[in-house]
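User: quick one, sequence for these C-alpha cells?
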C-alpha cells in the first residue's frame, strides 16, 4: 500500500522549488561576474540601476569588487613610510599573491608624495594583475592641528587637495573609484579628533550638536563629490565616488550644471 501524500505539502514543495530556481536565475549575473569576471577591464566606471538593485560597471560590464585594504608597512618602519617610493616594489610580490586569491581591487588610504611614483604602482597592479585601485583621501582627519570642518578655509583647502588628486589620476586605467575619509564621522562626538565652532558650542543638547556637525560634514562631502564628478565627467575616464561613512551615488538631474549629474548624501542629514 502506497503511503498517503499530503497534497498541500507537495504544492508547497513545488512552489519552493520554483522560487529557488527563480532566485538562482536572478542571481546568475552577479554570481557569474563574481566567479568569472574578466580581468583588465577598462572604460568608464559607473553605478547603474538594474534589475535587483544597483550595479558597479567598468566599461559597461559588471564589476564585482573583491578587494582588500592595502597598507603595506615593513617591519621597522612607521607612519611616514611611503610604499609608492619603495625601490623594492613590494606591491609586485603582494600583487601576485593577491591576484592568486582572487583580489581584483585594493584600497589605498592616500596617494603617495610623488604623482609619477603613485601612477607606477597603480599601473603595475593593473597591468600585471588586473587589480584596480580605490584611491582615498583622509580629508585632513589625521593632520595636526586636527581637522575643523566648521572652518570654511579648512574645507576649501581640503577640497582643493581632493580635486588635485582627481586631476592627477582620473585617466589611469587602474583607477576604480575615489574614497573620501576614513571613519571621520567619529569626530561628531567629543573624544576623537574633536572639532567645533562657537555656534556648535552654544548648542546645549549633545545629540543636536552631533546632528549639526553631521550636516556640516556631509554637506562638505557633497560639495567635494560634485567637484569630483565635474572633473571626471569632463574626461574620458568617468569614475565613481565612495564615502567611507556612507555611499554617494550619481543621479540624473536636469537642474544642475554638473553635466546633468548630482550626488546624494544621507537623507537623515539633508
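Assistant:
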Amino acid at each position: 500500500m502506497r503511503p498517503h501524500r499530503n497534497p498541500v505539502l507537495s504544492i508547497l514543495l513545488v512552489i519552493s522549488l520554483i522560487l529557488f530556481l527563480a532566485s538562482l536565475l536572478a542571481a546568475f549575473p552577479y554570481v557569474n561576474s563574481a566567479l568569472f569576471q574578466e580581468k583588465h577591464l577598462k572604460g568608464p566606471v559607473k553605478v547603474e540601476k538594474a534589475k535587483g538593485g544597483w550595479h558597479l560597471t567598468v566599461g559597461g560590464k559588471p564589476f564585482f569588487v573583491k578587494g582588500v585594504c592595502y597598507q603595506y608597512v615593513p617591519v621597522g618602519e612607521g607612519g611616514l613610510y611611503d610604499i609608492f617610493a619603495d625601490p623594492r616594489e613590494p606591491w609586485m610580490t603582494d600583487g601576485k599573491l593577491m591576484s592568486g586569491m582572487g583580489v581584483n581591487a585594493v584600497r589605498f588610504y592616500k596617494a603617495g608624495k610623488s604623482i609619477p611614483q603613485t601612477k607606477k604602482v597603480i599601473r603595475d597592479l593593473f597591468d600585471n594583475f588586473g587589480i584596480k585601485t580605490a584611491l582615498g583621501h583622509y580629508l585632513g582627519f589625521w593632520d595636526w592641528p586636527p581637522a575643523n570642518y566648521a572652518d570654511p578655509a579648512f574645507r576649501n583647502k581640503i577640497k582643493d587637495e581632493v580635486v588635485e588628486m582627481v586631476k592627477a589620476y582620473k585617466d589611469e586605467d587602474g583607477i576604480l573609484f575615489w574614497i573620501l575619509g576614513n571613519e571621520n564621522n567619529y569626530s561628531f562626538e567629543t573624544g576623537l579628533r574633536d572639532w567645533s565652532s562657537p555656534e556648535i558650542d552654544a548648542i546645549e543638547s549633545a545629540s543636536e550638536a552631533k546632528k549639526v556637525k553631521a550636516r556640516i560634514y556631509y554637506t562638505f562631502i557633497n560639495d567635494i563629490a560634485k567637484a569630483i564628478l565635474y572633473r571626471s565627467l569632463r574626461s574620458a575616464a568617468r569614475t565613481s565616488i565612495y564615502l567611507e561613512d556612507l555611499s554617494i551615488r550619481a543621479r540624473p538631474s536636469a537642474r544642475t550644471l554638473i553635466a546633468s549629474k548630482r550626488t546624494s548624501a544621507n537623507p537623515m542629514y539633508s
